[in-house]
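An instance follows:
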Amino acid sequence: MTKTYDIVIVGAGSAGSAIASRASEDPTRDVLLLEAGADYPDPATTPFDLINSHNNSYREHDWGLGYSPTEGRSAPLPRGKVTGGSSAVNTTIALRGIPEDFDEWDELGNGEWAWDKVLPAFKRLERDLDFPDADYHGDAGPISIRRYPERELLEHQHAFLDAAQSLGYPSCKDANAPDSEGAGPHPMNKLGRMRVSCAMGYLAPARARPNLTIEPSTFVRRLIIEGDRCTGVEVERDNGTIELVRGHSVVLSAGAIMSPAILKRSGIGPKRELEQFGIDVIRDATGVGGNLCDHPALAVSCVAKDASIIDTDQPLIQTILRYTATGSDKRNDLQIELLSFGPNRRGRATFAIAAVLEYTFGRGVLRLASADPHVAPIIENRFCEDDRDARRLASCFRDTLAFTKAPPLEGMIEELAFPNLERGIDDETILKLCKGRSSSGYHPCGTARMGPKEDPQSVVNEYGQLHALENVLVADASIMPSVPRANTNLTSIMIGEKIGEWLRTSPTIYGL
């Protein structure tokens, strides 16, 4: 007889790891955590690309996905395929969204996600080493967070902050303070060089629990649906064996790309799209795969006068500027940050200054390319097709160009490798660049967004429960109604914290 688990979690990423840890704190619940990628239980034998927080891991533990940022273009979309998910491969930026982000979620009918409701989860997940006594920070959570002090900043990172001051931007010691703005050190979930991923922070201490089972190298093909209920998942092992795994409650935490893809392969999605691939339609759920949100970005590439300052073995990112576009009513809707190193262009050492749009109006879409679970979905971001987005990113890019003329950063730049100033930098030229060259900040979300059942485009309710089916919930970046004005990893962990706690303390919500 096949064992039936109380909770089956699909995906050991940022949210899934937190859910597994919190839900398994109840010793009476049998929790199974499934991960398509590898697992490294011993930190001493964890590969260096997962330990090294100074740069992303781009290939060794990646899904190999691609996306179309704008029409006619394609590019890789790195996503972590390993326990810890993208928290195990990313840049370790531990930036919160601002209160207004979550209050907007509340206004859309998700009262459990207002700022005052999510702050306790943000505090619970973190061990803030710089501001442990602040009433909006936590001091004992599984994810250690610190900021680079001045003495640890690279020369050009220090120059970026000085340039921001010379341009009139305020200084900011703690970008995670609710009312913060301005330039300062990035909050980061790293200790020295070590990346404090969710595999390390959440799973490592939970592994000893006899009621938590972690099964890596297990690819989830689809949900098992019997009548109006989800009773488990169909999985494929590394050796090609296909099995059924049973659960009283199934939690999809496979991420903003894979969770909607699994739903669609299971017959839950837009009817016309499913019928196109011969998938039996269980529920016509038009919102699945829609509402794709992300942060479009465009970077200025700078050739360094002194090539010795460019060292790819040093931290990629250390500092950040958050500010508001002129005339905008969306606070901190823009971001500028310096990347310590960039592509080597014809033997010339470069660094970059990135302009990032943090509050977006435009939306993309995720569609199936095939009913075959091993064929990656089609990801179309459609960056800057909304003119409101294009014009604010263009203004941010012009502000970014101003940094290249501000002391002391100006003195460190030989010339610009991009954009080509000889082609002009008038407003329309910059606008055209944003519409044609914007790329992802690698923060996809929103593809199974939460909202009231009366909203035909919402996929789950505020507790993550699927509108279309019983006994299954989605708990990852998919359910965000909109992308927060911050890197999404900390918000994804917060989602796992909240839903993991509900599963532990209020299991009747989920029929447990």
